[in-house]
Design brief:
Blueprint (H helix, E strand, L loop, with lengths): L2 H7 L13 E12 L10 E4 L5 E11 L2 E11 L4 E9 L4 E10 L23 H6 L7
Antiparallel strand pairs: 1-2, 1-4, 3-4, 3-6, 5-6
């Protein structure tokens, strides 16, 4: 029996060039925090994706009054690669939504968002906009 056939019968597989499996960060969070708890930081686990799959990060922050609802999903996906995208909707004081999506295949653990810092900047205290705004920074 040929060595290649024997290895195939034993379940040994060899990755095909260009279709290599990725390792991605994996985590899910769905919870509500006080705004004072932000920014958040999480510690993901690692997962091995099926061949051809990419790594993804999805984070949604919904502020409602003094609380923020957080939905995080990190792991493997079949979706096409997507550059990091941030979408922000502010509907007045105390109500806003920020979402982040990213799909990658360029290297293992490329879905490396570990904190809400790049997406969540606390609003300045009431009355501070006029003072800061005159210096050209802060409120808009």
């Amino acid at each position: 029996m040929s060595p290649v056939l024997l290895l195939a019968l034993l379940g040994v597989t060899f990755p095909l060039p260009g279709v290599q499996a990725l390792f991605c960060q994996f985590a899910t969070i769905q919870d509500v925090w006080n705004l004072s708890d932000l920014p958040l930081r999480w510690t993901p686990k690692n997962t091995s994706c099926a061949s051809g799959m990419g790594c993804q990060d999805t984070l949604v922050l919904i502020e409602s009054g003094p609380q923020v609802s957080v939905v995080l999903s990190k792991g493997c996906t079949e979706a096409k690669d997507q550059e990091p995208r941030v979408t922000e909707h502010r509907m007045g004081p105390g109500l806003s939504l920020v979402s982040y999506t990213f799909v990658c295949r360029q290297e293992d653990f490329c879905n490396n968002l570990l904190t809400s810092v790049p997406l969540w900047a606390p609003q300045p205290p009431a009355g501070a906009c006029g003072r800061v705004g005159r210096r050209g920074r802060g409120c808009q």
